[in-house]
């Protein structure tokens, strides 16, 4: 039901000119060669983990690995068309893909391992502003960003969502904010980790689905409220660890 709902919602929005924030051009998915050596070792490990998790959740069949490789490699090619050429000593800017794509993998699981549906959804989704916040590889060395932002190697989620999370945390949960300040760690570092991984390994699958759906339906600012609510939920543990 969720797959059908987000599919129809995103499809409708992506056909409306006023809702499309990014122009993406035309991309035809190709039946790329899905030999393992086409993927980096990090991606291969990610694929194994995703398929294992998908089978544990009873969402994937036996041949799922090939379908997921098909999605990831096409996503890489599709996003590559919208990337700049950057000369930089920063390692994160020398790669076309910034590590494993957890968002595409989450959508793949929501679509029950249907590669074609996943890819169609992601192409429609990439036109919307919310894609910049939920799908982090979407803006990796992107032509849609000012060159100074690209060259910094810092993703907009870090200085945009992260900034608002810290601002709200001070107002809503001052004790948690102080605990982070004392630890020398910033809440936005933790949140970037959560968001990059789509909260995998931090929340249950149903909650991950809720997070993705809420941000798509209600807007990317709900990403910020989700992080704040998690800090509120963890407040007692955070304060206990600070004392210890």
UniProtKB/TrEMBL annotation:
Residues 1-243 form the BROMI C-terminal Rab TBC-like domain. It holds the Pfam family BROMI_C. This is BROMI protein. It comes from Caloenas nicobarica.
């Amino acid at each position: 039901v969720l797959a059908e709902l987000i599919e129809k919602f995103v499809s409708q929005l992506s056909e409306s000119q006023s809702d499309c924030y990014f122009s993406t051009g035309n991309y035809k998915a190709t039946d790329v060669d899905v030999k393992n050596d086409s993927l980096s070792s990090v991606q291969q490990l990610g694929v194994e983990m995703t398929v294992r998790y998908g089978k544990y959740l009873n969402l994937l069949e036996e041949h799922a690995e090939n379908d997921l490789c098909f999605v990831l490699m096409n996503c890489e090619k599709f996003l590559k068309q919208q990337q700049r050429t950057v000369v930089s000593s920063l390692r994160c800017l020398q790669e076309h893909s910034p590590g494993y794509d957890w968002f595409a993998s989450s959508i793949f699981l929501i679509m029950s391992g249907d590669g074609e549906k996943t890819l169609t959804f992601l192409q429609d989704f990439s036109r919307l502003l919310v894609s910049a916040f939920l799908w982090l590889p979407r803006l990796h060395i992107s032509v849609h960003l000012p060159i100074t932002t690209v060259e910094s190697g810092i993703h907009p989620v870090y200085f945009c969502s992260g900034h608002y999370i810290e601002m709200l945390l001070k107002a809503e949960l001052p004790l948690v904010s102080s605990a982070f300040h004392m630890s020398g760690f910033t809440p936005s570092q933790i949140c970037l980790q959560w968001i990059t991984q789509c909260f995998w390994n931090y929340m249950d699958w149903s909650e991950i689905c809720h997070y993705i759906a809420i941000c798509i339906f209600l807007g990317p600012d709900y990403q910020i409220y989700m992080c704040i609510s998690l800090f509120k939920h963890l407040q007692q543990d955070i304060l206990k660890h600070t004392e210890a």
